[in-house]
Amino acid sequence: MLSVVLGIIIQALFALPVLYYVPLMVIAFVMSVWKYHFLCVAVFALAALNLEYNRSVDIALTERDMEYSGVVLAEESYEHYTRLFIRVDRVLFSSDTVFCAFPVEYYAHEHGQFLGKRVTVKGKVRGAKRIYRPAVLTGEIIESIGREHIFGVVFSPIRKYIDRLLSGFFDLERYSIASGLTLGGSGRLSRELKDVFSRAGTLHILAVSGLHVGFVGAFFGAVLLFIPLDYRAKFIIVICALFMYAGVTGFRPSVCRATLMAFLFGLALVSQRNVDSMHIVNITATVFLLVNPVLLFDVGAQLSFAAVYGILYLYPILEDNFIKKTHTRFLKGVLRMMAVSFSAQLFVGPLLIYYFNRLPVYAVVANLLIVPLASAIIFMLFLCFTIGWISFTFARIIALPAGILIDVLTILSNFFAGLRFSALKLNITPLVIFPLYLLAWKRIRKLMLWSVMVLVLLLSVAWSVDCLIVCASPRGIFIAMPDDTRIYITDRVSAAQRAFLQKHGVDAVDYLVAGSRSHPVKRDFVEWPEDLHFLGFECGDLEIAIYERLQIKYRGCKMEYSRSFFDEQPDDGKIRYILSNGKVCHVVEGSLYNTIFEQMIVDLRTAVARIRLLFCI
Asked: pLDDT of 375-412, one tens digit each?
């Protein structure tokens, strides 16, 4: 698995030509006859090749509107829109039809059941900004027909049935939570409610995972217990049921991971073989990355596998050193639940800090109450779905206590989210975060420990250097002064600006120069000047002037941009970091859409630039 991960990372960072890997793979396969270690090199090259072929395709015919036709393979409902994952197989323009095959994302403004349908969209395909995302299709749906795909014939009716029952049983808020608990996803939740679950550290219960797969497997296993079939046939039926459930939930990485692990564990049980749980997870991760290597950069897949690795690695240690020494049965049960939650939270925590700049403090205690409660709700909802086939009235009766428990779930989440310091705001470089995971590997633990110490020392010296930082991007120009004064300059209001500021850990700026008060301001708001008007603005050693050009002057260093800088720059998320001590300037190129590995390189280059400023070189 390490070979697969290294191959994907190196290809993602350096994008080496494909021809480099072909002879390497052939030679490695030949040499593997002599020593099997060369198979790792072959797998390394195979993973790199696979990543290159799984990158988002760059469609040449995107300058004018055309008709793109494909089947909807998955859908995710949000508060105001639905995100569709479409496999485009036909492009129609004029009287010609081009047959092709590439995935796209399409954002439909209306809610509806699209799964398995063939849709035709008149619009354009735009390249994906992130490496692990398909291209984005923009335009209008002009045709939506039939169920010619297995997703439409099998999965769509089941999903529609579940959605119809939930919408009939509950009001909008309860429905959004119940839908997340059974079908996965927190998209239908309002922003306020989603923030409550996030601060409480319980948002993960709305992601379909091993808990849900376990319920489905246990339910069908209990039903088949009374049917006189061979245990192998029962195993096949249960796995088929899990595959159906994975399809209904849109084949999310977390549910696919749990389903594949269930299959491997069941296969070992049927064949009467003892297997190591860690090996099962490693095999699952390797299969995932070989089939779809871009999952390495997917946040959901990272969080899902990190939680499982945390439980499998840390929980046995806690069990042997603490839980087994407890003799009270009730206390032992409580400690086991807390140990599972703590193990998962410890491994997921660094990723939460990097991606969301937030770490829930009371997550372990909150999950001690909320996970059993969510389990009871899921059991009741699955029972409703089963009984609903026979009697809608009986299903509604069971839904009544489920609705009450959903209210209790919301109240508990609000309670933990409302506690003081319920979530810590942190902004830590992945240079420190990523090596923490490698500390679990005994062979390189000492090396990683020394590496972390050296990195912390390097970053401490770098961040002690007083310098001006100018972050220029199409979203705006963000300036961080040595005295921690923060200035943001933009001529437009955009939702994407929130992502730009969030990347730099900024909730509110000291000074905002913009067309409107679009962000929280601590000190002063300066309105963007109209054409042919002059704006002069001073803050300590910093001078900002906007007339025919945007000029930023810091001591002896001057930076200039055209007044239409924000219109001229392509919306590709590129960021230019300019570091200056007033005498010397250094430039570091970055991106708003960096993967965690690319961001490590950017942060390292930024730290080196700061140290160079210390010596004025």
From this structure: 899 889 988 988 888 888 889 898 999 999 999 999 99
Give the phi and the psi of residue 278 in degrees, each rounded to 5: -65, -35
Other Cβ atoms less than 10 A from the Cβ of 172: the count is 10
Helix (H/G/I), strand (E/B), else coil: 345:
helix
Q: Do the Cβ atoms of 596 and 13 come closer than 8 Å?
A: no
In degrees and rounded to multiples of 5, residue 315 shows phi and psi of -60, -45
Give the end-to-end CA distance of the chain in Å, rounded to a whole number: 42
Q: Which parts of 236-355 are beta strand (E)?
A: none
DSSP reduced 3-state for 31? helix
**Residue 439: predicted pLDDT:** 81
Average pLDDT, whole number, for the chain? 84
Please identify which residue in the block is written with the tokens 């437009």.
492
Q: How far apart are CA 173 and CA 525, in angstroms?
A: 37
Query: Is residue 254 within a helix (H) or strand (E), and if so which, with residue range?
Result: helix 253-270
Distance between CA atoms of 37 and 130, rounded to whole angstroms?
A: 33
List CB contacts of 181: < 8 A, sequence separation 6 or more: 205, 206, 212, 374, 377, 378, 381
The partner residues of 560 in beta bridges, in order of sequence, read: 551
Specify which residues 106 forms β-bridges with: 84, 137
Nearest alpha-carbon partner for 114 in 71, 150, 148, 79: 71
* pLDDT digits 0-9 by tens, 90-101: 888 777 788 888
What's the CA gap between 384 and 164, in Å, rounded? 12
Identify the helix (H) or strand (E) that includes residue 137.
Answer: strand 135-145
Helix (H) / strand (E) containing 292: none
d(CA 271, CA 84): 40
Q: How many residues does the chain have?
A: 617
Q: Which residue from 132, 89, 87, 79 is spatially nearest to 114, judged by alpha carbons?
A: 87
3-state DSSP call for residue 454? helix
Distance, in Å, from the CA atom of 564 to the CA atom of 471, rounded to the nearest integer, reads 17
Cα dist. 83→115, 416, 427 in Å? 11, 31, 29
% of the chain beyond a pLDDT of 90: 11
The candidate with the shortest Cα–Cα distance to 367, out of 307, 290, 420, is 307
For every residue of 4-16, DSSP letters joined together read HHHHHHHHHHH--
Closest CA to 74 of 288, 253, 213: 253
Residues with Cβ < 8 Å from 88, sequence gap 6 or more? Answer: 68, 69, 70, 100, 101, 102, 103, 104, 137
Interval 265-280 mean pLDDT? 85
